[in-house]
Amino acid sequence: MQTTIDTRQGIRRVLITTLLLNFAVAIGKIVIGTATGAISISADGFHSLMDGSANVIGLFANRIAGKPADENHPYGHRRFETIAALAIGILLLITAGEIITSAIGRFSSGEKPEITPAMFAVLIGTLVINLFLSRYERREGERLKSELLIADAANTGSDVFVTISVLVSMVLVKLGFIWADPAAALLIVVLIGRAAWQIMSKTGGVLVDTAPFHAAELAAFVSEVPSVLRVVRARSRGPADAAQIDIDVEVAPEMTADHTAALSSAIEQKLKQKYNGIAEVEVHFIPALGALPDYVLTARAAADAMGLATHEVRLADAPEGKILEMHVEVPAGQTLGAAHQQVSVLERHVRASLPDVADVVTHIEPALTDEHSPDSLSEDDRIEHAVIALLKEHHPLMGWHHVHASPYDGGFAVTLHVTLPAQIKLEHAHQLAERAEMLVRTEFPKVKRVTIHTEPPEE
Predict the structure, then answer these.
(1) Do domains 2-207 and 215-287 have the same CATH topology?
(2) Which CATH class is domain 293-376?
(3) Is residue 307 helix, strand or coil?
């Protein structure tokens, strides 16, 4: 939040500086143009006056765009800045129309402007100011990621070419080419029209929800996240520096709310690492119909619903059919009969959810708590053991070791090492580690951060 406030204040400072200099330049051009009768200088002066007016609009929009989301604007006020940038483009077109009218009139009258040293002094001075403003606004716009400043920098940049054109036309008029004054004015129209088109095409694209990212690229990227069966739809809208992304993904129907929350977080983190300036990622989950059942996930979901914990879940094939083995943690301090009754209910639920499972074999053990087992494993240790078991189950050929869990952001951060063949490509090693990271975060919502160190075997 503080960063957003600082950004808005930075944009405001740039706009105020630009506003004051633009009005100073405009007054100088209009005064000298009126005094000498040079239509191109007067037109350029009114152009600079329009720039000052655009800065006023920008200040107004910047103040509104910085407001937080509210009931009437649940997505924030960011587009007020886009509308302001569009207004700058419209002002440029209005200026171009006025210059065309004046230039046509000068061609008809043949009136010659008065050329004075003061005229050249004003033009050279404004040229220096415009060069400074254009570079200053573009640099600050890129630093602050403000499309408003970048749009206004393009506007100010056109002033540089305009002033140079006017200077050349005044030299030609001095040499006797009277037509150079209105001709320069028409050249100004071309330059202004080009700047207006660039601004309006960009801002117009944002207002009509042109996608800042390709849907196929988003879908391919999200498909790399473990537990995502298929990306049904990928959409994006808004400016590239404040984009909103909607992702619809198919997942196993057995997934619990905890699992989908972790998967949503993993997708959001992966997208924000790939693209800069993402404001929001919305993930919608669709249960896959007709997909093969996820036996491990189904068993864990059934246990979660009963308030029981499971680990070491394994599916085995036997002559009589599939056998699902798992360790079940029940509250400590109760009798074997009571614990067996709880686990028997769990077994029936699992068999009902997985008709092709011939038998469910459970190993009953007391849940490890400080109250009932003071010398038992800490939660950090339990996370470490569970993470290693999960990774060895899904990636048995990779050498997992030196796992460590520690408190982090209301959950845990896990670090571990993995030994991979020395000849493996670095890109492939990175992909394997990234997939393992997403698997851990998806399966264990309490794990907020995973750091995997890849290394070759010791010689």
Answers:
(1) no
(2) alpha beta
(3) coil
